[in-house]
Amino acid sequence: MPDVKKILGKEDGLTLVELLTVIGIMGLMVIAFYSLVTFSPTGHNQAQNIAQRQSDFNLIQTYFKNELANAIEIHMLDSLPDPLDNNYNYIYLDNGSLILREGTTTRAIVENRVDNLLFSLEEASSTNHNSLYKYILVYTVNDIESSLILNNINYDISDNHKTIIAYRKP
């Protein structure tokens, strides 16, 4: 490795090519360091938001399965009735929170993270002519769609695409 003092003493300083090379290498190092510093928190925040949305949706699916799969009566509504019938349970959206109202008890399934909610029913295909599963509840939460098979329920399918669901459990 050449001695820097000998090079500087002999040539009386750095050449323009050497100076530009050092500036270029330092610039690349600054860019690499900057991208690491800014990308890590941004990527982490995006991954955390995606994970939170997936966790919320899994929680909602579990609640819907537990609450609605074996309901004996379902009504889809555009607005909450006034006064509320305590014989029914309600699932609805209120200020970004998904609310479950059971009788006189109200609780949030997911708080402050639900942008939109829509329910609709579709007839289950009867390939084996068994009417045990008559309807499939299709629901959309934050633009993610999923479905749930309802067990042996009677319903008028014409009343569809609503934002509130009222139901009774056995």
Summarize the structure.
This protein has 170 residues and is of the alpha+beta class. The chain has helices at 4-11, 16-68; strands at 73-77, 89-94, 97-102, 105-110, 117-123, 133-141, 144-151, 164-168.
Tell me what the structure shows:
It is a single chain. The chain has two helices and eight strands, in the order ααββββββββ. 36% of the residues lie in helices and 31% in strands. The chain is of the alpha+beta class and 170 residues long. The radius of gyration is 31 Å and the shape is rod-shaped.
How do the strands and helices of this protein lay out in sequence?
Blueprint: H1 4-11, H2 16-68, E1 73-77, E2 89-94, E3 97-102, E4 105-110, E5 117-123, E6 133-141, E7 144-151, E8 164-168
Antiparallel strand pairs: 1-8, 2-3, 2-8, 3-4, 5-6, 6-7
CA-based gyration radius: 31 Å
Q: For the report, how would you describe the main beta sheet?
A: 5 strands, antiparallel
General form? rod-shaped
Number of domains: 1
Low-confidence stretches: none
On the 0-100 scale, what is the average pLDDT? 81
Count helical runs.
Answer: 2
What structural class do helix, strand and pairing data support?
alpha+beta
Features:
alpha+beta, 5-stranded antiparallel beta sheet
